[in-house]
Amino acid sequence: MDSTDAPSRLEPLWRWIERRLPNLLRRHRFEPLPITLNQRRVYIVPSGFGLFFAVVMFAILIGALNYQNNMALLFGLLVVSIAAVSMLQTFRNLDQLSLVQVAADPVYAGDQVPIALHLRAADGRPRYGVSLRLGSLRRHIDLAAGAIVVVHFTAPALRRGWFSPEPATISTRWPFGLFHAWSHLHSDVRTLVYPRPETPAAPLPRNPEGGRQGGTDPGDEDLRALRAYAPGDPTHLVAWKASARMGELLVRQLEMPRSRETVFDYGQITGLDREARLSRLTRWVIEAEQAGIPWRLKLPGIDLGPDSGPAHRLRCLKALALHALPDPRH
Amino acid sequence: MRSPILATRPFEWLLLAFAATLAPYTLWLPIWYSALLYAVLGARLVQRRRFARPWPGWVKFPLLAAILVLVVWEFGDPRSRQTGTAALLGLTALKLIEAERRRDGFLTATVCLFLVSVQFLFEQGMGVSAYMVIPTLLCFLALNECAAPPGTRGGIADEFGRIGRELGLLLLVALPLTVFLFFSTPRLESPLWGTVETPAEGRTGLSGTMSPGSITELIADDSPVMRISFAGEMPPRASLYWRGPVLWHFDGIAWQASRSFLGRSNANTPGPTRAGEADLRYRVLLEPTDRRWLFLLDYASGIPPETLRLIDGQVVHEQPVKQVISYEAAADLDAPVPAGPFIQEQRGEALRLPPQRNPQTLEMARQWRAEIGNNPLAIAGRALLHFNEQPFAYNLSPPPLTRVDRVDQFLFDTRIGFCEHYASAFVVLMRAAGVPARVVTGYQGGTWNPVGQYLLVRNSDAHAWAEILVPGQGWVRIDPTAAIAPERVDRGGQAFAEPSVWRAGGWLEGVANRFDAMRAWWNETIVRFDHLRQRRLFEDFGLDIRDWRQLGLWFGIGMIALALLSALVFWSRRDRREDPARRQYLRVLRRLSRLGVATPDSEGARSLAARIESERPELAGLLRPVCEAYETSRYGQSGQADAQRLEEAVTAFLAGTPRR
User: Fold this and answer.
1) Which of B291, B342, B353 is nearest to B320 (CA)?
2) Is A22 part of any domain?
3) Residue A238 lies in a domain
4) For testing the chain B interface, which of A20, A68, A86 should be mutated: the one with the most B CBs within 10 Å?
5) Stretch B560-573: mean pLDDT, rounded?
6) B594: which chain A residues are within 8 Å (Cβ-Cβ)?
7) Hey, which residues 156-175 in chain B have their CB within 8 Å of chain A?
8) In a domain, B186, yes or no
9) What is the pLDDT of residue B490?
10) In angstroms, rounded to a whole number, what is the distance separating the alpha carbons of residues A284 and A273?
11) Which of B81, B85, B143 should one mutate to test binding to chain A, selecting the residue with the greatest count of A CBs within 10 A?
């Protein structure tokens, strides 16, 4: 990774290696899907057991030659031939294997990103004992001929912004454990990590101008301002008395005249650092969308809305996630 | 890092592989030891299936000590091959007891393969060799299961279909490779250490002594002794006497080889006395006998290399025959064996009789001598006439001889016996009549195998006859059995054995012939392949393997040819994958990616051109004609003109853009 950032005299060499032998090194750049493994991408070495096996076979062959025992020699050569052919089979177990899709969903910072790798044997042969490693997690799969197998991983999302899963390592020792073949899968799939929503939540701003003074309690529990509880509604909005009367769980519909709009303005939050402000804005965006309130998000250089609904929420969350971050790809 | 847990499936394959590896060893291991090992395996299987608790140390360690002590106690010398092998078998069984990790599995499967190869030091026959394929494949199946990561399958053993496909692919490539390596691996002319031998456990055959009953045991033994191919026509079976050990010394019960110098080597023994007749040339493939003697037709006119001729005409090998050997010889059928040197000592030895024994026999012989005079052949004829006239019978299970004077009991009382009784009694009669005589053991006749075009001699063809010394001629062969039961020499020993479907006339004879021909081929081609045959094989291809430079040259040429062939296959496949237009286009894409433009597979030519227009305007001018020509030649009415246009556009693009 270092050498890509700072060009060195070895740079041409690295570029040549990367072009001729992609995926030998994990420093290989992101690639578009599908990634299909071939003879340039699959690397193979004898395993530790393979080396031990070779020593034993060598002893058998030398003994057979010495004692002029042709049957032992024939047997030893058969075993050696089978072992040699198994090298080809180990390679073929990965060859033409395709990473067709990587599904990674957006999460909030601090959560685990679910990553699903979709693998398919592109040539209709079944595969056995294929291991995948992503970070510290390992998964082992068999692939039926032609079927797509989904392998689930998670990776911690530590910071907001674009998240690229680290390269997955695919390896196999099938059929006899004598050889270890591997390749690195480095897809260009990335996902967003939104800022972590602030907890406990600060009340929503009510006033288009007033930053923190908004969010006054509606006071009387007018039935017209109540709606049925939906999963995800914050508990402090539950109208407990009204719910008791009506026999179902009701939440307060936040009063909002059409003429006034709720503005979440980055510049209006004071006394907090950047990340804390983004956390608060994230929380407000989530709550506003749950409450069905149209809102407007103002970030330095960005003004979104007023609008409401999930699409607007995603737009806002993306803007919050990427605020003041450079795109890692440029 | 600890090795992962060994799952149940790989463990049970492993147990099966070891049980199969152990099976051929039970042929020579003491039965209690085989039973002990199998019992340990069974107990282990039950324990692993039923109880989670491993075997405690107070069971394992005494068991280990007991196995080692018992093995040394049973086999003696701890450095011998048997002891080492038996101990290794025991240790492997004990390793299986505590195998709980995958690395244990890998280790045990490898040791099993090693044990399969060790088995061939004890037995290289075709049957056992064919059987060894089973443990070998089981070992690989066990390895396959051991190598499967947790939650996945080994795959090969899952279904019969898959066994067929995966093993088929494996063997399709591995078997020709094995055969090639087998014939081309250089053989050693002499061992680097130790001596070449295969111990003969329970091997049967002529023993070098003859007492009543010793040959009867052989009559029931159908195992092959040797296979003979003749240069010309096969002579009549009745004159095929395969001469083996010569027995001089009689103690009243058993016949033995001479203890004096007569049983030693004699380099000066002349060739056959009667010359001129066309020699009968033949080639013998002798199975291991664990003895030094070779079997030759009468008196061989020349002896094979690495052999010695004894004074009594026996031909012996320098070493006991522990492996299949082959030799060529020529014979002058029915010619007497030349008497050779030390004629006085030979006469003395050939007239000696146990003192104070068989008075009736001695008396009868003395009478004949008095009647006929000093005419050995006439006295012999008188004895044969006696066997013919009196009610003598040929029977493979005669009444036992129990008296001190056994020859008397046979000649005057029971009168039922077979070749060894007649040969023994005849020689005693001759010696008593003053005619020097000796017993010769060997094989008589054989079975013609029309499939392999050779004569098969089995242990059941074992025979004993006599030779008498005739002045001026030498040792003349007399077969008293022929006087009583001519069919014995006409039809072979089987004429008197139990009728069998495998034997002459049985419907399975053809099958048996074919099988034996295969066995002969096996011994000839595989087991006997040594450095001399290897040299001959390569000479057939015009190669002298002693010339290293020539060999290296051919090896290099072969490797280059192989590399060219694989390159050809590779490039032809590559060409088939991509059509010509696509290949031209890919050259452009490669150049683009070198210039730092992402070119995902999913992007079409048109959208690529549009994107370059905005991203890298300096390339757009050259790229646009490429994309247009590619689209028309790929998706339009493809013609030669389009291909031409594409090629020109590509060339222009490559020429007009920097390489990097």
Assistant:
1) B291
2) no
3) no
4) A68
5) 82
6) 19
7) 156, 162, 166, 169-171, 173-175
8) no
9) 58
10) 17
11) B143
**Is there a domain that residue A123 lies in?**
yes
Kindly state whether B136 is in contact with chain A, defined as any CB-CB distance less than 8 angstroms.
yes
Contact B143 A70 (CB under 8 A): no
- Residue A135: domain span: 30-194
Residue with tokens 């790229």: B623
Structure tokens of B574? 């590559």
Residue B170 lies in a domain: no
Residue with tokens 């004894």: B310
- How close, in Å, is residue B221 to chain A by CA atoms? 25
**Do B334 and B287 belong together in one domain?**
yes
Question: How many Cβ atoms are within 10 Å of A258's Cβ, its own excluded?
Answer: 6
CA–CA separation, B407 and B239 (whole Å)? 28
Q: What is the pTM of this model?
A: 0.66
A133 with A56, same domain: the answer is yes
Convert the pLDDT of each residue in B407-443 to its tens digit.
Answer: 888 888 888 888 888 888 999 999 988 899 999 988 8
Confidence check: pLDDT of B157 > 70: no
Q: Which residues constitute the domain of residue B257?
A: 202-546
In a domain, B194, yes or no: no
Residues in chain B: 660
Q: What is the pLDDT of residues B278-310, one digit of tens each?
A: 578 888 888 888 788 888 887 777 777 777 788
Q: Does B600 touch chain A (CB under 8 A)?
A: yes
Chain position carrying tokens 């919050």: A320
Structure tokens at A35: 């990634």
Cβ pairs bridging A and B (under 8 Å) = 155
SS3 B304: coil
Closest CA to A286 of A309, A254, A319, A265: A309
Q: How far from B551 is each of A62, B309, B547, CA to CA, in Å?
A: 21, 40, 6
CB nearest A32 (choices: B129, B198, B602): B602
B149 touches chain A (CB under 8 A): yes
Q: Which residue has the tokens 């599995």?
A: B105
Mean pLDDT of all residues in B113-138: 90
All residue ranges of chain A with pLDDT < 70 are 1-8, 18-29, 206-225, 232, 253-260, 327-330
Across the interface, do A67 and B196 touch by the CB < 8 Å criterion?
yes
